[in-house]
Amino acid sequence: MFQSILDDLKQAIRSGNMITRLIIINCIVFLFTAIGGALFPAAYDVIFPYIALPGSLFELVTRPWTVITHMFVHAGTMHLLFNMLFLYWFGRIVGDLLGDRRILPLYFLGGLVGAIAYIVSHQLLPSAVGPYAVGASAAIMCMVATAGAIAPDYIIRLIFIGDVRLKYVVLFIIFMDLIGATEGNTGGHIAHLGGAAFGFIFVRQLHEGTDLSRPMENFLNKIRGWVNETPEETKIRKKKKTPLKVAHKGKPAHKQDNSPKSQNFQAELDRILDKIKDDGYESLTAEEKEFLFQASKK
After folding, report:
1. Strand 132-133 to strand 155-158: parallel, antiparallel, or no bridges (unpaired)?
2. Which of 51, 74, 210, 261 could connect to 205 by a Cys-Cys bridge, CB 3.0–4.6 Å?
3. pTM, rounded to two decimals
C-alpha cells in the first residue's frame, strides 16, 4: 500500500503543474514535522529553530537557509489547510493567466519579501513580534495579490455568497491582515502584507514591460539543470574552457530588440492585460486567450 502511495505521489509530481507540486511538497514536510513533533517532541524543539525563520539577525546570519525552509513549515493542520486552499485557488488563476513557469519564482520571491518584512518588524517591534516565523502565507499572499491585480474582475463563486469579483475578495483578505496585525501574530500578518505588496508591484512592472520574476526563474532553471544533468554532462561542463573574447573600443552593441515584430508582440500583450484588468478574463476572445497562452510559454 505504501509503495502504491509513493508511486502516486511521484506520478503527481512528474505530471502535475507547479501548484500541485508545491501543495504536495508542503503536505509532505508537514507530515514529517507533525509526526516528528508528536513522537519526539524534545528533538523537534531542538530542530525547529533550524528550519523556522528567526527574527534575530544574529541567528539569521548563522542559519541563512531558513529564509527558504520556513516557507514549507506549518504550525498546525488548519494553518496548512487554509494556506494550501488559497494556493490552489489563487495560484491556479495566476498560472492560467501568466503561465505555470512563473508560479515557483513568485512563490519564492513573495516568501522572501515577506521574510524581510517580518525581520524588519521584529527589529522595530521586538515585544510584539514572535521570535520565529513559519508558513507559506507570505508566498501565497503574493499569489493572491498577483491574481487580483492581473484580473480584478475575474468572477469566482463563493459558498453562501455566490459570484464575486476577485478584486473584492483580495481586498477583504488584505483588510483582514491589516486588522490582524494589531490583534495578534503581528509579525506574521506584516509578512503577509509584504508578500502581497510584492504581488502588486510585480504586476505593475509587468504592465510596464519588466518581468521581476525572470532573474529568479533563470536561477531556478540553472539549479534544475545542475540537478538533472548526468555525470557525463557534468564532466563535459567542467572541461569546457572559457572562449577567447575580443575586446572592442567602440560603442557597445545595443542588445535591446527594437524590431517591429517584438514591439507588436509587446503591444498586443499589454493590450490584452489591460483588457483583463478593465473587463475581466472572460471578456477575451478565443484568439486573445490563445495569444495569452502562447505568450505565457515565452
Report:
1. unpaired
2. 210
3. 0.77
